[in-house]
Give the backbone structure.
Amino acid sequence: MTTVGGRDEVQRSDASQLRVVGRPLPRTDAAEKIAGSTRYAADLALPAMLHTRLVRSTLPSARLVRRDTARARSLAGVVAVLLGEDVPHNEVWVDVPGQQTEVRALKARSQVLATGRVRYHGQPIALVVAESEDVLAEAEALVDVEYEELPGVFDPEEALGEEAPRVHEDGNLLAEWHIDSGDAATALERAPIVIEGQYRTQFVDHAYLEPEAGVAWLDDDGVITIRASTQVVEHFRDIAAILGVPQARIRVIAPYVGGGFGGKEDMTVEPYLALAVLRTGRPVRMVWTRQESLLARPKRHPMRLRYRTGAENDGTLVAQDIEILADTGAEAYLGALVLLYSSVTAAGPYRCPNVRVRARAVYTNHPPCSAMRGFGAMQVVFGCEAQIDELARRLQLTPDEIRRRNAIREGDRLPVGQQIVTPIWLGETIDQVLRAAGPRPEPSRPHCRVGRGIASNLQPYGRLVWLQDTAAAWIGFQFDGSVTLRCGVPDIGGGQAASLGQIAAEVLGVDPARVTVHFGDSARTPLAGTSTATRQLYMSGNAAHLAATRLRDQTLDAVAEAAGRARGALRLGPGGVEGGGEPIALPRALELVRGLGVPLEVLATFHGPRGRAVARDLAAERVFPDFTVGTHLADVEVDCDTGQIRVVRYLACHDVGRAINPQSVSGQICGGAAMGIGSALTEEIVLESGINLTAGFFQYRIPTALDLPDIEAIALESGAGMGPFGARGIGEPPIGPPAATIANAVRDAIGVRLTELPMTPERVLAAIRAQAHTDPPRPAPTGP
Amino acid sequence: MTDATSRITVNGRELECRAAAHLSLLRWLRDHVGALEVKYGCGEGVCGACAVLIDGQAVNSCLVLAAQIDGRAVTTSAGLGSPSGGLGRLQQAFLDRGAAQCGFCTGGMLVTAAEFAGAGEALDRRSIRDALHGNLCRCTGYQAIVDAVDDVLRDQGSSSPPAGGWT
Amino acid sequence: MYVRPFGYTRPASPLEACEHLRRDDGAKVLAGGQSLLPLVNLGLSTPSLLVDIQSLGDLHGLHLEGEQLVIGASTTHRMLERDAQVRRVAPLLAASVREVGNLRVRNRGTIGGSVAHADPAAELPMCLIVLEARYLVDNGARVRSVPAADFATGFLTTRLAPDELLTRIEVPAAGPDWGWGFQEVARRAGDFALVAAAAIARCEGTLVADLRIGLAGVAPRPVRCPTLEAAARGRSPEALPELAPLVDPDIAPSDDSFTPAHYRAHLARVLAIRAAQDAARRSLDVRAA
């Protein structure tokens, strides 16, 4: 990865002073993962442990006529079979933000185990608990479920029809968001250039390598403890509600997670494990198969996007009219919020005075859709960046010129009303990828054509401001000068825990190897919020930074007093307390501190910016704390006889503010780009009348090493982010641009725009054949 | 027979395997040997998280029965360490390059790389990608993994592997 | 992952293996396991007994017998891939086997398993019909020989009786002046082919004298393209593309939930010609050398 330094005027801290932050240190968790000694959620075994498995619906829409567990229960080795009636609080009601029915705020209902009817293929109906894994397959088959098939609805547009079968009693519209900034209709009428297009994205799965898993047990003092692969330990509250026990009696531990990407943001195994422990009093393990993970765990929303974009003859954007229709599947989950992200970011990282957005999330009898890396801000890039590209062609501008001309800057407002309050280096990310790209490749064979495309995006980091987000961290010196950091952050593979250790080591002047991070425990680490929304480095990083800074200050205050040194001269460094005389080794200095009765520990809470809840008609001074922008560039080769697309070259540049650990940042950028390329080319959950046909890794195709080119990550360090040391979040942002980048490159290669994901070879071929006319030539994007 | 007895060497330790006939090598290694570095990822032979070496050849341990490999030697990723107990060369390269993020695919990646690196062939990056394409990773985009293997192969040059192999 | 328990046996002879198969309706032959065990793990196959034929020594390895390559059914893909004799006398086989699955699948998977599983998109059965191989089939009492082209009867079905074992594969060596071509389009590296094409050709002068083409993924079983093969004789490799529509009479692709039949048909035309041209050019190269 290349790291490109920031401009002096926006540097918040002088990078040259940093010892630990900014260095590509191997993560503290990496050595154990490589040696094979890390214990993931499925790796724990306890004495007398039971095993569990869900019985899932085989139909997408049906009435449950009969559920008979007698045969299953009589099978040797089966301990219990639970139905919805056995769940203390089987109905779960969640608020749907910003949405009103005629009489009240909208709430959505779901069931832990389905009782009356099932609404999607794979919905849990019963929970089998057995002495051995070997019994589970047969026990599952012995649970008799009789279905009466009901009409289902499998298309979001049809679902909005008057006569459409209702997925839920309140109707099929889960959520709707409006943005009206300026007057888009009039501006489009007057605009000399108007581009129109419709785009479709698909169901996508997170496909982390670790399937959902956990072990739970009844601990001392009646605490049900669930050690599970999750991004959110705070689900202990939801689990308590389902079980009808005090929240204090549920503890969730997140060990190192084998990938999350949003798929472990909603609960997966947790409530079922807790129910089995409550029922049996014994330790219980649950491991989902890959097939059930693909079958029924929430997916990325497929979206239908309709864009109209108006511009002046010089390329200045004047209006965007955007309609978004999302299939949210059969359960609410986070669908309303996903669409909110789509709405706020749909106009792209550009200044545009007149924007109208209409976004709807609609229930169908498909698997539920919820959080996935990018969280709704990803899909809209495919539409928006296609429009910008087509606009450039129409105006004979290069793709980089049109983006630079309209790029959003500090002080500008997004259509929703939020002002950009930090320097946003969009133009610089464009410069970087073009500079690094070099000459365009030549076709490798006569029937192939090559093309180059770029696309930019903006992605929020940090949670919606009205969620009043906080993160806490506890930090303490041990007597020997080693450091203990406690923070409730789940580490989902992005180096979340290690980064906190690095921040603490920087502030406290110690070797990072002297810092031990305890993380992801709802009972024994201060709650730090979810490892979602690109928020952990920002929120928990700031909390750790705050705690470490306070600990440093109170330590140095005490040493100054005890040793009679000038406070202003003292600092923490490799020698311990340095300045004002001979360095005092840390253990000795801490003895002095203790001698004064000053504590060696600090608990600090970081508060994100606060805000007011939004209504359906979105207009807010602030929706998110801040944004990360970036630009990707791809060179592709298209085989015009077979339709195959090969990505020959790929570059991804984001303004990361500050790369706390450049190795982790590079990993996030390369991994996000690869996942985005998968969405662009091969990945799709295929459903036929609600039946999931892609419940396996044979059919659900994430890219292999051979399907990808080298990915060049460029981290631009503006130093201008709101995280510690000026960092911005980088977990989600790289997922945004790839599909649009590749579509733009393919457009460049073959003169046809693909508007539907994934861009399969048959779609490419069909587009080539449907090409009625040749487009006027346009200049290629070249470096400045 | 429904139960089979066989002798299997795991990371240099010879073990008696008295397991139900239907037990996969994966489950036997995890549940009976405690080799938890071997991961279940799909059960289809696609993802490679369960990869181990049998007599030096990478296999899907989810698609081999423990009963099938009587008398053979299994190496898991935990068996790729240096003789002194530290990380082996491939493992060290993975660490240096940041090739493990969530770490779930790492063990399988390492053993697959160990097989072809052990063959001592000089491979370009595309060939490395070809050799690794049966191991899925969702975090890294493979970039750091290919870099790590590339580093090791370059160090090695075209000479044959050192005595004691690649680990 | 959650499998129903089953039994396992290692017979000492083909006869014993066949007896197990005769006795137990639920018994299945286990070779490399790379096709069967995924089905078992997914609960799509629930055998009562697996009859492991890997220990039958005769079924391992390959050798030249006169003008033909004799391959034991339990020979792994990896052995084929790395064997110098295969590269020399059946380079088509050596090239195509590299496209099978991934390293781990090739380390365990066997040629006999691939042939007996009869996946219509599999590479090796298609190549074997192009090479006009013969399969020896044993029921413990009687051995019969089946031409490769007649072996598969449809999707995952073959002429193998329930109590029969495929024991060896005989591949006639093509002459030194034959060239080969192999083409495949898969959605992702290592996936089953959407369509694959294999060809061998012999040129005389600058013209094609003999051409054989096989296709996988375009019918319930691998097919040859006799219409195209006949029309290609006497043409130059450059003139082959206009013959592409002649694959149509010999293929029968069907729509499935992932891939439309017309796309498979299109790929068949493109890849058949590419494979044929590669084969013809390699033959010309040999003659020029």
